[in-house]
Amino acid sequence: xxxxxxxxxxxxxxxxxxxxxxxxxxxxxxxxxxxxxxxxxxxxxxxxxxxxxxxxxxxxxxxxxxxxxxxxxxxxxxxxxxxxxxxxxxxxxxxxxxxxxxxxxxxxxxxxxxxxxxxxxxxxxxxxxxxxxxxxxxxxxxxxxxxxxxxxxxxxxxxxxxxxxxxxxxxxxxxxxxxxxxxxxxxxxxxxxxxxxxxxxxxxxxxxxxxxxxxxxxxxxxxxxxxxxxxxxxxxxxxxxxxxxxxxxxxxxxxxxxxxxxxxxxxxxxxxxxxxxxxxxxxxxxxxxxxxxxxxxxxxxxxxxxxxxxxxxxxxxxxxxxxxxxxxxxxxxxxxxxxxxxxxxxxxxxxxxxxxxxxxxxxxxxxxxxxxxxxxxxxxxxxxxxxxxxxxxxxxxxxxxxxxxxxxxxxxxxxxxxxxxxxxxxxxxxxxxxxxxxxxxxxxxxxxxxxxxxxxxxxxxxxxxxxxxxxxxxxxxxxxxxxxxxxxxxxxxxxxxxxxxxxxxxxxxxxxxxxxxxxxxxxxxxxxxxxxxxxxxxxxxxxxxxxxxxxxxxxxxxxxxxxxxxxxxxxxxxxxxxxxxxxxxxxxxxxxxxxxxxxxxxxxxxxxxxxxxxxxxxxxxxxxxxxxxxxxxxxxxxxxxxxxxxxxxxxxxxxxxxxxxxxxxxxxxxxxxxxxxxxxxxxxxxxxxxxxxxxxxxxxxxxxxxxxxxxxxxxxxxxxxxxxxxxxxxxxxxxxxxxxxxxxxxxxxxxxxxxxxxxxxxxxxxxxxxxxxxxxxxxxxxxxxxxxxxxxxxxxxxxxxxxxxxxxxxxxxxxxxxxxxxxxxxxxxxxxxxxxxxxxxxxxxxxxxxxxxxxxxxxxxxxxxxxxxxxxxxxxxxxxxxxxxxxxxxxxxxxxxxxxxxxxxxxxxxxxxxxxxxxxxxxxxxxxxxxxxxxxxxxxxxxxxxxxxxxxxxxxxxxxxxx
Length: 963
Fold this sequence. Notes:
Layout: E1 3-4, E2 12-13, E3 18-23, E4 29-34, H1 45-48, H2 60-68, E5 72-77, H3 94-107, E6 118-123, H4 125-137, H5 146-154, E7 155-161, H6 169-178, H7 194-206, E8 212-217, H8 232-235, E9 241-244, H9 261-280, H10 297-309, E10 312-316, H11 323-334, E11 340-344, H12 353-364, H13 377-382, H14 384-397, E12 400-404, H15 410-420, E13 430-435, E14 448-452, H16 461-471, H17 477-489, H18 497-511, H19 515-529, H20 536-552, H21 558-575, H22 579-591, H23 600-606, H24 611-622, E15 627-628, E16 635-636, H25 639-650, E17 658-659, H26 662-670, E18 679-681, H27 683-693, H28 702-712, E19 717-719, E20 726-728, H29 734-739, E21 740-742, E22 750-752, E23 773-775, E24 797-799, E25 821-823, E26 845-847, E27 869-871, E28 893-895, E29 917-919, E30 941-943
Parallel strand pairs: 4-5, 4-6, 6-7, 7-8, 8-9, 10-13, 10-14, 11-12, 12-13, 17-18, 18-20, 19-21, 20-22, 22-23, 23-24, 24-25, 25-26, 26-27, 27-28, 28-29, 29-30
Antiparallel strand pairs: 1-3, 2-3, 3-5, 15-16
Helix pairs in contact: 3-4, 4-7, 10-11, 16-19, 18-20, 19-20, 19-21, 21-25, 22-24, 22-25, 26-27
């Protein structure tokens, strides 16, 4: 259980509007209390509304609720709710209130950011405030705010205590009985008036089908007024559960005991929320930011218990059993207890352990001892001894947590322990390791404790998980039956319901409790239900066919055979895809889920950015064949699905469509023509070549020696793959890249030279005139992009991030009229831009983050009218913006943070009417803001912190009503 703040400080103030009553160590639920109208001062209304007799000891949201729901985070909102308008109170209307609250909720309270359900508990006007929060969150100024999107996505329920959905005669008349000026919030209490109608109509437009509503109504009159504040008819809400209590408006939210109906009603609803969330939570888990699962709670507790006894805990289980998910759940719940933590993802798939160690160094914050820069693979290999010395010293001095996901081999594990000197580190440091076989870790017992993964069969969760993916909404047995009955009624096939249910049960049994199989197979057969062109009878036959394929999987012995059986069952979903979807699945499996990972938008551009590509990606995601990280959009794939993709490709023998292993690459390089090859990665082959050249290879055949002797003599490397689409040269030696000659490059759509030490781009690249994406990220020695870049007129994405020696861009870059993303982040030597950059009229995102030598933007920047995001963070040599910046009318985010030489903003900035975020933090030389700043009516965020030379603000700032 978490810690309740002591009675003298019973709440933690997170902001002026957000207070926290209770925070558990592991959060499974967030409950937000919102008070109603107040006759007098309202500073304490956020807690006194709920506290019997108005004392903190009787504040049940912080006393009773945490005892019954120890994993629930409990918060309250505070706002100016005065019924009367004075010089200091009752001055904010509902519209401004909603925008202010939602901003503080997500920024300071981090409400809705934990991947758990959010429940609003509202008294009186508080219910209307909750509605306005939802309405405000759907306004254009928040359309790009991921935090607001997260909050709306995670809302599960509203509990309304005496909320006047249709107004209140008494609430409006009380003002006139007591006298005084009317507060603006009172306008929302009119019975069936225009403002009440607007609020209800807008909320109905934005509310989501997954939300649940509950009403608790009063039945007692207020003695002094001989009338109820909220009539029962006004408290009712369509499709909500309804309960009328023996209480007045003032007492309805102040239960006298835990058996009181008022309290029992809420706790019943919160239990329902958690029951619903048992299955829905797992699908938010995709990254280091993944949140705890209710269905993993017992396993999480067991692992945490073992970590008290063992310094290292191994999570052991077959592929697809949930090892990685459980590791992430535990990591998320305990990482804050450590000084530093590191999550090493999918270690087995990395080319070398050096890559893993570089990730560890970065996550621990260990810099290059000579340059002070972030650890890079290239300098790690040159200064390995220095880095490992610093790593061992760090582990010895700090309490650290390390998760090693899918360690792969005993050799990998032993090497990592030795490099960290973990045994001699602090006794309170901990490590979690996932692998499929205990033998990989058993050598290190008793340092390592063994935890065997538990499958879902027999728990009931297997049926719930499978149901979620088949039906999307129905999880329980009655819900499943209701869904099937409705589905079968469309073609009068109701008699088939028993057959469907029988096959459903058989498939769940065949999945044997394996979460991955349940997800993938559920999504596969569920797609048949949603295909309008498939009759009920045909759908049933497709279900039966899927079941038969499961049963036809060969019963093989041994670990490898278990993997093969799983692949055969997963392949049912792959075989059901059309050719285009199969191609994209194999692309991701072979090239985009290892060391190189791209976000959703980049993958779309790599494939051409067509509407059909978008639909294909969505289809693959809906079928759970890959997932998208909620925070950064990175596409990820389960290692068993990846391995299945590899096995499919390797099953084609010498006609493999995608080639990445050293021997297969060598075969392609030696062949006169390889028409089957659509994807080629030289990464593994390059590492093998380095080993040979350093004399570290175990075995070397004659043709290897001949091939590499040619490379050493800078002989050209002929490559004849006429159908090649994807070409990965990630961290390949520069001389190899420079020696490549392509016979036919007309089909190449993506080239990755990430991290290659080249001073200029290899010539073969400029002949790939149908290229969609060129990745030069981390080419730190690159000085010249060449005028030939202008030949790549089909290019959609150009990534020059961290090309620290790139001094300029060629004029010909203006030929790239289809470009939608240009990333120049970290190009620290870039001083200026060519005027032709204004020709990139389809550009949506332009990133100059950390380009500290950039002195100005050309006037032609104003031609980029489609631009939505311009990032100039830490462009500390930038002194001004051109007046043409005002032409960027679609710009929603302008980041000028730490532009320390910027002295002024042009008046034309007032034309950026769609701007929602303007960051001027650290602009110490900025002396004034133009009066036109007041025209930015959609601005919701303006950061002026550290603007030391700014002595006053123009009066027009008062027009920025959305701040």
